[in-house]
Amino acid sequence: MGLTLAVAGKGGVGKTSLTALIMRVLIEAGKKPLLAIDADSNSNLHEVLGIHEPRSVGCVREETRKLGDDIPGGMSKDRFMEYQIQASLEETKNFDFLSMGRPEGSGCYCMANNILREIISRLTSNYTFVIVDNEAGMEHLSRRTEEEVDHLFVVSDAAPRSLRTIGRIAELIDELGGRIHHKHFVLSRVHGDLDDLPATTKKELEQLPYRPEGAIPYDQALVDLDLSGEPLIKISTDTPSYKAVEALLKSAGILS
Ligand SMILES: Nc1ncnc2c1ncn2[C@@H]1O[C@H](COP(=O)(O)OP(=O)(O)OP(=O)(O)O)[C@@H](O)[C@H]1O
Ligand SMILES: [Mg+2]
Question: Which listed residue, of 53, 76, 114, 250, carries a Cα 20 to 30 Å from 202's Cα?
Fold first, then answer.
């Protein structure tokens, strides 16, 4: 069983960009096999990783529910879902990708969800690293009660309003207890050195239960890739954001 890394934080702070950067650094470090999971229902991780619109786990769940007992080919429900999830897995040269898709609708999905949990846990056990990009907030982690995360990266930009959400996220992480093995507070889109942050930001930082373990600089190269519609995973290894994420993974003990 490999390591599960997850990225969480308030909306728009740079979670998906950090996920893409982590993937790129792990690929450059020769870490294989890698699985990226998009757990954001308004997902766009596939785009920053250069993958076309994937079929999601949510679609498989919905299709299976609609079929009821009419599973084609006389397959069991478990086998059918496992087969469909395998078919939804996007495989690239350097990594595989799975999209969780939309959460379930109003019907009863307990059985499908139980089967899915087992299939996904079996699937993820095949990888050296599983990297999960989450939707904004932390409630999703409390919902997925059985999952363990080895390293959780909690991201915020330097705006006081974003930083204040870190306090609430910290409380939720405490409630999750031992399921989160290591947490790393990361500041994103930082202009200049941490010492040069505005006084209001420094004051907010002092109130927080965590000190920033890493700072991802504001990186024009990343913005330019985004604006040109290029996948962020193509970012050059000599850019400030790439180097910062490489240093972060080393200081977290994920890379040596
Ligand atoms: N280090 C950086 N330097 C410059 N711009 C950045 C950096 N990181 C992220 N951005 C920009 O910030 C915006 C939001 O980034 P991103 O989509 O990664 O955030 P998110 O937290 O995943 O958002 P959401 O909550 O909507 O999923 C994007 O336009 C991205 O290009
Ligand atoms: Mg995102």
Answer: 250
User: 3-class DSSP state for residue 9?
Assistant: strand
Residue 229 maps to a domain: yes
Cβ 175 vs Cβ 139: under 8 Å: no
- How many structural domains is the chain composed of? 1
> DSSP label at 186?
E
CATH at 205? 3.40.50.300
105 domain-assigned? yes
| Residues 1 and 210: beta-carbon distance below 8 Å | no
- Find the 18 Cα to ligand 2 centroid distance in Å: 9
Q: Please give the distance, rounded to the nearest whole angstrom, from the Cα atom of residue 23 to the centre of ligand 2.
A: 14
- pTM comes to 0.94
Which residue from 16, 45, 243 has its CB within 8 A of the most atoms of ligand 1, so it is best to mutate? 16
Question: Does residue 181 lie in a domain region?
Answer: yes
| pLDDT per position as a tens digit, 80-123 | 999 999 999 999 999 999 998 877 766 666 677 778 888 888 99
Range of the domain at 92: 3-251
Shortest CA distance to 242 belongs to which of 225, 221, 213?
221
Confidence of residue 126 (pLDDT cuts 50, 70, 90): very high
Asked whether residue 256 is domain-assigned, the answer is no
Q: What separation in Å is there between the alpha carbon of 75 and the centre of ligand 2? A: 36
